[in-house]
Specification:
Elements lengths: L1 H9 L2 H34 L10 E2 L8 H7 L2 E2 L1 H29 L1 H4 L1
Helix pairs in contact: 2-4
């Protein structure tokens, strides 16, 4: 069983997957920072200094100043955090699309002609 596992790991596919996961995790951190530290503050400024991280609806009906305080009081619909995550997803999805598109161009026989 160990020999079979060693052969699997040495095939290259597992190594490629491991490298992809590690690079993906690091890329995710960069995208999170881009969204939270660059895109959302600019968007906030354009929309009248709205703090998206503190945009929420307290489902228990109690008023709170911050999202953290609202979460202490019970269930919260944190739509600002959701918006940040949607922007992050769109950036990651578009980046992956660009990478896959470029790889497909390199592999395509028509591109070599």
């Amino acid at each position: 069983m160990f020999k079979e596992f060693k052969a699997f790991v040495n095939q290259g596919n597992a190594m490629d997957l491991a490298v992809g996961v590690l690079i993906g995790a690091a890329f995710g951190k960069i995208v999170t920072s881009l969204v939270n530290d660059v895109i959302m503050p600019v968007l906030s400024l354009l929309l009248g200094r709205v703090d998206f991280n503190n945009r929420f609806v307290a489902l228990n009906g109690q008023a709170a100043d911050t999202l953290a305080k609202a979460k202490e009081g019970g269930a919260v619909l944190a739509y600002g955090s959701f918006m940040n995550n949607v922007v992050e997803f769109l950036i990651v999805a578009f980046s992956i699309f660009l990478v896959v598109r470029q790889i497909n161009k390199w592999r395509s026989p028509a591109a070599k002609a």
